[in-house]
Amino acid sequence: MKTKYFIITGSSKGIGAELSKQLLKENHHVFCISRTENKEILNIAIENNYRYDFVSIDLSNIPDVIKMTDQIFNKIREDDSELICLVNNAAVVTPIGTIDKCNLDEIVATVHTNMLSPILLTSRLLDATREWKTSKTIINISSGSGKYPAEGMSVYCSTKAAIDMFTKCISLEQKTKENPINIYSVDPGMVDTAMQETARNAEHDFQLKYFFVEAKNEGNLKKPSDVAKKIIKNYIK
Ligand SMILES: NC(=O)c1ccc[n+]([C@@H]2O[C@H](COP(=O)([O-])OP(=O)(O)OC[C@H]3O[C@@H](n4cnc5c(N)ncnc54)[C@H](OP(=O)(O)O)[C@@H]3O)[C@@H](O)[C@H]2O)c1
After folding, report:
1. 204 belongs to a structural domain
2. Is 115 within the bounds of a domain?
């Protein structure tokens, strides 16, 4: 039986961790990518003898990202693969604050992590598998913040808007291909994760912060496990 390969960025916590956990199963090979390893995922893989690789990387470090793409794609063979699915999920919401007060290094790191890394990973996947008959899917985790401007969140909102536009462009490019990839931009809604906590607890007093606090207090945040389940059901065939 052939293998379904999954490459999931931001796998250590939140939505990415839940996606990774739910995708670990027989005939799947899951590559988890983040700075820290989620030990629960490691243990599930060991106990069940599932195919799992953890790649420790800082996605804001672009030379490392370029090296990593070779490391991963060298491990995937066409004759063994039924599906290759890349989930560009890793992201950071900081810096939060008006742009004049944002730290420049933090702006660079966020643009690299949220926007440039997904673009590079997509480019490399499409190049490495150009002639392959294997099914290919890319899921870019987007956000409502890519559509609705928010004071104090300009860097995050801009990177998410860029991901939406990037997805639309690649969709157009793929239309003329013999074996086109399926590429989606998915807004998960508001989810109870560390990212929400960061936004709620931000020092900067911005309008959306109170909306996030209220959503948490009123129990309106979604569970990461439910969000992951829905993404798998709707986008991974
Ligand atoms: N939570 C929400 O309400 C919400 C709403 C809309 C959209 N989203 C989107 O959903 C996705 C997942 O968010 P989440 O809420 O699950 O976030 P989260 O719980 O904060 O998790 C973020 C993940 O990204 C990884 N990551 C962050 N910076 C990284 C870096 N420089 N290098 C490598 N990995 C990095 C983290 O791993 P390490 O720290 O171990 O590196 C972690 O695994 C994001 O794209 C986010 O924009 C979330």
Report:
1. no
2. yes
Which H, E and C letters describe 130-174, residue by residue? CCCCCEEEEEEECCHHHCCCCCCCHHHHHHHHHHHHHHHHHHHHH
**pLDDT tens sequence across 47-67:** 999 999 999 999 999 999 999
pLDDT in tens, 196-232: 999 999 999 998 999 999 999 999 999 999 999 999 9
Task: Tell me, yes or no, whether 42 lies in a domain.
Answer: yes
Mutation choice for ligand 1 from 191, 220, 227, CB with most ligand atoms inside 8 A? 191
Q: What is the pLDDT of residues 99-157, one digit of tens each?
A: 999 999 999 999 999 999 999 999 999 999 999 999 999 999 999 999 999 999 999 99
Residues belonging to the active site: 156
The CATH number that applies at residue 163 is 3.40.50.720
Ligand 1 atom 34, closest CA: 34
Atom from ligand 1 closest to the CA of residue 195: 20
> Rounded to the nearest 5°, which phi and psi values hold at 58?
-95, 110
> Looking at this protein, which amino acid is placed at residue 91?
A
Task: Please check the confidence at residue 237 and state whether its pLDDT lies above 90.
Answer: no
Please give the Cα distance from 135 to 5 (Å, whole number). Answer: 10
Give the count of domains, the chain.
Answer: 1
Cis peptide before 63 (omega within 30 of 0): no
Q: Which residues form the domain of 40?
A: 3-189+224-235
> Tokens 């106990």 label which residue?
47
Q: Is residue 214 part of a domain?
A: no
